[in-house]
Write a structure and sequence with these properties.
This protein has 384 residues and is α/β, with parallel strands linked by helices. It is built from 14 helices and 12 strands. The protein folds into 2 domains: 6-247, Aspartate Aminotransferase, domain 2 (3-Layer(aba) Sandwich); 252-383, Aspartate Aminotransferase, domain 1, CATH 3.90.1150.10. Helix 1 runs antiparallel to helix 2, helix 10 (250-269) runs parallel beside helix 14 and helix 12 (309-319) crosses helix 14 (371-383). The chain is globular, with a radius of gyration of 21 Å.
Length: 384
């Protein structure tokens, strides 16, 4: 039976029928190489684990492409491997990139600190000034890079305008869709060329692996795979299996996290100790209308600032009992962190502040604990 519903695709999409040896769960093919019949062909098609084409890779690629609605998909050894390999595959020395100004810290560091060594350059565009984007173009601008929801301020750039701008100027459009996941948003349906994920986060959902994913047209994904084959940022078969298993519950997890995070955001927004909450599900969020129009849910991440500033944020993290004070997001456990000490610690303090990321900003990734318990825990920590 064919289905386009995400719940069914997450469980059955891309699977072999009948399954290998009639096993309901996909076996782990823990073999680095595979027997050939002596056939001649392209290097990148040799059956070899580093070339990302074991049976575990194949089924995972098919499932991810179905979930994101693209022709092809590719898994990598980390989210940063997906980002860096994609950019290096699609650009050549001398090329120029336009990128959203507020990005994940690792991406920002790669663009600002590593790009010059490859002969590449970047200009950062303001989501608030789309009429000025064209002024940043150069004859060597090849690509525009954005996040569906920015980390950690939860801003949503005018995504439709990004796609139209890319098409008007012959640019490849690349988007990091980690925060919404395919459950809440499918960028390819809007017209984005390449979709990236840190699969460490929602796609896996269990805080026990590091992986990345690239989705898009077969021609571009194959080009990125060839670069990955040489750079070596491959995902091993065992981790493929863990990610495959995590995807089975993706829809259930994310939909619960959508609801729980929105409930917590509303509660915090009304708390006397809280100065401001960033969550697109709140009507006062500047991008609430965009997110409500394009996304099927508002996600499991929020950020906020306390009226007591940095000291109050430190005390809050010390007093909470359920959330773990740890980086990353998207797992079944609630995680809390100050981005200035984790995801964005590599960005200069002046740059962070200019982007609106204060030292007192707190980011929360809501897990699947009982919403009532999370709210009660924040209440006791804030009132203490």
């Amino acid at each position: 039976m064919k289905s386009t519903r995400l719940e069914t695709l997450a469980v059955h999409g891309g699977e072999m029928r009948p399954p290998p040896e009639r096993s309901v769960a996909m076996p782990i093919y823990q073999s680095s190489t595979f027997v050939t019949a002596g056939e001649e062909g392209d290097y990148h098609d040799i059956r070899y684990m580093r070339l990302s084409n074991t049976p575990n890779h194949d089924v995972l690629h098919r499932k991810l492409a179905l979930l994101e609605g693209t022709e092809a998909a590719l898994v990598t050894g980390s989210g940063m491997a997906a980002i860096s390999t994609t950019l290096l595959a699609l650009l050549t020395s001398g090329d120029h990139v336009l990128a959203q100004d507020c990005l994940y810290g690792g991406t920002h560091d790669f663009l600002t600190k590593d790009f010059p060594g490859f002969g590449l350059s970047v200009s950062f565009l303001s989501p608030e000034q789309p009429d000025a984007w064209a002024q940043l173009l150069t004859p060597r601008t090849k690509l525009i890079y954005v996040e569906s929801v920015s980390n950690p301020l939860l801003r949503v750039i005018d995504l439709e305008r990004v796609v139209a701008f890319a098409r008007a100027h012959g640019l490849i459009s690349v988007i990091d869709n980690t925060f919404p996941s395919p459950v809440n948003f499918n960028p390819a349906a809007m017209g984005f060329d390449v979709v990236l994920h840190s699969a460490t986060k929602y796609l896996n959902g269990h805080t026990d692996l590091v992986a990345g994913a690239v989705m898009g047209p077969a021609k571009l994904v194959h080009r990125i795979k060839h670069k990955l084959d040489h750079l070596g940022g491959t995902l091993d078969a065992h981790t493929c299996s863990l990610l495959h298993r995590g995807l089975k519950t993706l829809v259930l997890r994310v939909r619960y996290q959508n609801d729980s995070c929105l409930a917590l955001a509303r509660h915090l927004a009304g708390h006397a100790a809280v100065a401001h909450v960033n969550h697109t599900g709140l009507p006062e969020h500047p991008d609430h209308a965009r997110a409500s129009r394009w996304f099927r849910g508002h996600g499991g991440v929020l950020s906020f600032e306390l009226k007591g500033g940095v000291d109050a944020a430190r005390r809050l993290l010390d007093r909470l009992q359920l959330p773990f004070n740890a980086p990353s997001l998207g797992g079944v456990e609630t995680l809390i962190t100050r981005p200035c000490t984790t995801s964005h610690s590599g960005i200069a303090p002046d740059t962070r502040r200019a982007l609106g990321i204060s030292d007192g900003l707190v980011r929360v990734s809501v897990g699947i604990e009982a919403t009532e318990d999370l709210v009660a825990d924040f209440d006791q920590a804030l009132s203490a």
